[in-house]
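So, can you check this record?

>
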Amino acid sequence: MSETLLMKREATILNIVCIIAALAFVALAVLNAVTSFSFMTTDNLFVTVVCLLMALMFAVNPLLYLKDEGRLPIPFQKRKALDASAVEAGGRALPPATPLLDAKGRAVPPDVKSMVNRMKPRQE
């Protein structure tokens, strides 16, 4: 078999294991909440938070994989695609670069703009 097919299988198996582990930790948190007599104790809250944090840690890898593959729709990235299609259809486009604003929403002076432009990584 080719090496890329093996790598895809490994990634698929890793993602399945991570999803199963995340679901198991969520199930443990729910089980802890349902079976405890007094849920609002320090111990029960700690166990619940730890289980939910572990579930989050195991769920991050499959979510990032889906995002990289383009299978996970990101709402703010759809807007960029819609703007590009509006330009092709003859609609008005947004300016390519938004103006640089400070924390209060005012335009940044030209000397600060030049410093920020020098700090940006150069694209080749």
